[in-house]
Amino acid sequence: MNNETSTDVEIIYTVIYAFVAFLMMTISVLVFIYYSRKKIIQKEIEKKRFRITISKRNAQRCNPYTRKRT
Predict the structure, then answer these.
(1) Cα–Cα separations (whole angstroms), residue 35 to 39, 42, 43, 47
(2) Which terminus of the chain faces fewer neighbouring Cβ atoms within 10 Å, N or C?
(3) What's the whole-model pTM score?
(4) Residue 70 CB partners (closer than 8 Å, separation 6+)
């Protein structure tokens, strides 16, 4: 009886450890995806700002009324 009980306890502990490990891996993957996505979006915003800046410069060069007189 005692031998069966210890085997059952070992099985329960094994299942619990496997569940905790799976849960930790899932959380790690989700955090990695979150920060990767955040970084990608930040890079896209920087590219858009750069394009807007270039467009504004080109518009000022082409429009004689907005050009600065030197």
Answers:
(1) 6, 10, 12, 19
(2) C
(3) 0.57
(4) none
Distance of alpha carbon 41 from the chain centroid: 9
Place of tokens 């890079």: 43
Residue 4, burial from CB neighbour count under 10 angstroms (0-12, 13-18, 19+): exposed
Cα distance between residue 41 and residue 48, in whole Å = 11
pLDDT above 90 coverage of the chain, percent = 57
64 and 70 Cβ atoms separated by less than 8 Å: no
Alpha carbon distance 16, 22 (integer Å): 10
φ, ψ for residue 67, nearest 5 deg: -70, 145
